[in-house]
Amino acid sequence: MADIFKSFSKTGTGTVYTVPTADAGAVPPVSPTIALVKSIRISNQSGGAVTTTVNVMDYSNSSLEIELYKESMADATESEVLTQPLTLMQQDQIKLTGAGIKIFVSLLEIT
Question: Higher-confidence residue: 77 or 60?
Answer without folding.
Answer: 77
